[in-house]
Amino acid sequence: MKRHFLFALAIFMSVACAQLEPALPEQEETSVESNDKIYVTIEDESTRVQLNSRLQTVWSRGDVIISLSPGGKAYWWIFNGNTGARNGQLSKSASGSFDDPGLDKHYAVYPDSAFEGYATVGGLPVLLTSLPDVQHYEAGSYGIGSNIMIGTSDDGTEYKFRNISAFLRLNLTGSKKVTGISLKGNASETMAGIYYFLVTDINNYKWYQPSNTELYLNCGDGVQLNDDPTEFYFSVMPVTFSKGITVTVYFADGTQISKSTSRTIEMERNAILPMATIATDNSSWDIIEVEHTSDTFTSPVFSGGTSLTGFIYWGDGSQTVLGNAPEEYVYWDNQPSHTVLLKTEGASAVEFPSMEGITEINFSNF
Question: Which residue, among 121, 97, 150, has the nearest Cα to 21 in the 3D structure?
């Protein structure tokens, strides 16, 4: 059965874009009863519109979705509850109609601005949605509306939502104010545009109108950095960066820095991938970057100074104050590799008690 499925999927993904004839519902000038409501829940706790401090699902007041129902009725819904709710009730704000491509149940898209239309491929219904190339910074989260979710319902009243997007988390330290960050794949992978997928299979998609190979995170008036890592999130489509990525950070003073990694990076749907902490200052800190593929890492021992201070950034979003003895760290995020950043002051020598799993060490800033 598995081989037959893969063969059928290959046929779908090889269909030429020219065969698609996307259409959008026509919004009607009709009154809407205030008691028309739907209920939304999250299929699993790792699906989220916006992150809270516990990485749980939360909605934001004013979120708008569009739903498509068998028979050709479309509805727009708005969340009037409080930001931070993990489930809730949406009120109908508008209605419309469309030529039903053969939907087997009720479908919804969040946010409605990402919905680009519907069509059929080989007689099967597909939805078209888009990922923007400019996203907006949100403290401790990815920007509201930058992640794409699809909801399904058997009766059109209760929808369960799932993320289509994957998420990349950057951690920056320094003393400057960040106004923007760009992200691109070193093999020029498509990063933004319109894509489509079978309504029955959101795990596989095909680009319809790719628009950019780079994403930009707009940080508005600026985000002040300090010695504690500040998190920045990108919403990306599931993709394999076969030659790694390049990140460029832009500062309020007009300067910028770029950091690259050449290792293969796998972005999985509905998963947050934390990257190594990036130190943006040319300060008195000595920095060593270590790439490794083990599920554990033993920190090195620094020596040579009378007063040693520092931090270990383990590459999964966690950090530890540098101690006087080696520390073994265990990873639980199932990632194939990590980049550990060691930041210290006052050291003149370093000794690694174990080289197991280490693939590269960068001493250029030590």
Answer: 121
3-state helix, strand, coil in the chain (%, to 5): 5, 50, 45
Cβ within 8 Å of residue 42, ≥6 positions away: 48, 57, 86, 87, 160, 161
What is the tens place of the pLDDT at every residue in 4-61?
Answer: 222 233 333 333 343 556 666 665 544 333 346 556 665 554 444 444 444 444 567 7
Distance of CA 3 to the CA centre of its chain: 30
CA distance 365 to 150: 45
Contact 112, 64 (CB under 8 A): yes
How far apart are the C-alpha atoms of 122 and 8, rounded to whole Å? Answer: 11
Cβ proximity of 49 and 59 under 8 Å: yes
Give yes or no for a cis peptide into 229 (omega within 30° of 0). no
In contact, 189 and 239? CB cutoff 8 Å: yes
Phi, psi of 12 (to 5 degrees): -60, -45
Using only the alpha carbons of the chain, give its radius of gyration.
23
- The helix (run of H) or strand (run of E) holding residue 63 is none
The pTM score is 0.74
- Residue 33 gets which letter from DSSP? -
pLDDT exceeds cutoff 50 at 79: yes
Whole-number Å distance between alpha carbons of 259 and 120: 42
* pLDDT of res. 13: 36
Q: How far is CA 176 from the centre of its chain?
A: 25
Residue length, the chain?
Answer: 366
User: Are 103 and 126 spatial neighbours (Cβ–Cβ below 8 Å)?
Assistant: no
